[in-house]
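G., before I forget:
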Amino acid sequence: MGSLGKPVRVLLVGSGGIGTMVAYALETGGQAEVTAVLRSNYDAVQENYFHIYSVDHGEVAHWYPTKVLNSIPSVDKDSPGAHYDYVIVTTKNFPGIQEPSLPELIAPAVTPGYTAIVLIQNGINIERPFFAKFPTNPILSGITFMGAAETSPGIINHYNHDRTFIGVFPSPSASKYQESLAIAAARCLVDAYSACGSQVDCTYDPDVPYSRWRKLLYNASYNGVAAILGMDTSRMRFAEHIIDGLIRPLMQEIRATAKAAANVDLKEELIETMITADNYDKFFKPSMLQDAEKGRFLEFENLVGEPLREAGMAKVETPTLKFVYSLLKGLQFKAMEKHGHVVVPKTGEGLKYGGC
Amino acid sequence: MGSLGKPVRVLLVGSGGIGTMVAYALETGGQAEVTAVLRSNYDAVQENYFHIYSVDHGEVAHWYPTKVLNSIPSVDKDSPGAHYDYVIVTTKNFPGIQEPSLPELIAPAVTPGYTAIVLIQNGINIERPFFAKFPTNPILSGITFMGAAETSPGIINHYNHDRTFIGVFPSPSASKYQESLAIAAARCLVDAYSACGSQVDCTYDPDVPYSRWRKLLYNASYNGVAAILGMDTSRMRFAEHIIDGLIRPLMQEIRATAKAAANVDLKEELIETMITADNYDKFFKPSMLQDAEKGRFLEFENLVGEPLREAGMAKVETPTLKFVYSLLKGLQFKAMEKHGHVVVPKTGEGLKYGGC
């Protein structure tokens, strides 16, 4: 179907490891034209293009999407040909730190009631501010299990097979009609993505809440604890007490919260599966650990904070999650100080706990 | 009294920051002769002596105790003049890692039924293996609030006033007679220490369990969390959520455990006092953080592990303490790997959580 019409017009926001590989798959399939918005790597890519080392596509030198910009374009709402069909967001999520917020940032490029917004990001409740800002647009979920990182500006190391799921975030207020359109938008993107060929696995996701809570089993446990301990997941598994004392209790708390807060059934057996999900031999460092090692902000509010708040409202006891959240907030404080978002006073005068 | 007799003979085990300042105070008072057992700094001290920068004593160049050894001496039990009156241990405590254990290590220098063993170390239940090994010897507690570190071999930076408390560990089996002797041994050491003059505050501690649980309020909270977060105590206080979410709950759990497990009453108000105990302006890094930064072993078993086990036996709920313990065990695992105490296998074959 999609292959008969004109290519879909995609604006990609966040062209690091994951974003660039999404753009590459879409462009390679021939059913999409991608305009990528770059920030830190704009100059490098303008000069040398992207250089990709991919587990799926091999080495790709001098690759460039259809178009590259260094800021979000403002779409002329009156010119039909200018509309973006999709705005795909692959940046990390730092609610409360990002200014402007992501919905505000992309708004100039979004045609109300038309453009589908695709969030290829981790965590739960990430769609809420987009539903609030764009109540008549399809808001789509992208969950990817690929591993990819930008090792230096424009240099992409794609080290884990691209397995990506695209579906529809259930809307609190959508009509049956809106829902049908959103599903069609999701399926059309899956088609354009899959046109790349058998190197990638892109699948329609019929149950986004389930998929997101399922992935949260890993992201609310291994990802956060890895950042706190500075430890890859294989070492955690070898040091069994970290699994028994922290990882499994966290997964159990997420499972209980998924059921109570979202009526999502995560089977008990899934926990043991998730504990050994990573290939032991790879000594994998989850994303938050990679960010912590680089002194970057930690993407923990939608991975740990939101499930904790959901648990609170659903009256589920999640002591381990609460504890991990407190520590991640402490690590985030350090990153915020490093980036000048907070200034620690030299004396304790007037502070709540300043007195000596 | 003490000043009329011959100087007491002291063997000091562990002559880093704290140990060297204890030796200096004792020797300066003229009522003690200190033989110090050195390990990593032996060569440096043999060559250049100690060089001390002290908040209490000023700069002291080329200082040397009465005698320096590089291993624990074996005392000739038949020669009365050879006995040590005191063996003072100021090393850190790493039960399960140290080989041989501290009691085994010092045994050759201890005259059974005679030598008083003084543990200037943090935590609770540290006396147990000494009572087991030396059932007829006085086992004394030293709690110091001085701050001192060896910045390089033989160079001592003594940055916080020497305030030290010496008392008797209650023995599970001592007779009234043994108790009286132990108290006399403690008071005699306080006298010898105090002979140094008003630069130091050395006091007899009439209630060791109270003093140790009181200090644990700080050591089981700030000390462990500082190591986990890599953060000084002033930053934790400025980032109020770390106090509210972690430090105060930990102190409350220690307070409840002290009461239930040891019948020690720590007043509620003490918690707020302890929260602001450090001078904010100093941005103090507790000892475990200093050790973590240097990749050293963490002294957490007697500071966090033992209160946790006491809480378990007394059926006190200590969820925060339990999580802190799990994480510290994870950090210790990293230190053990670094020092070659564990080898992480390259593949997960045969491991409990190895399968992929």
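Chain A is about 40% helix and 20% strand. The mean pLDDT of chain A is 94.

More on Monday.
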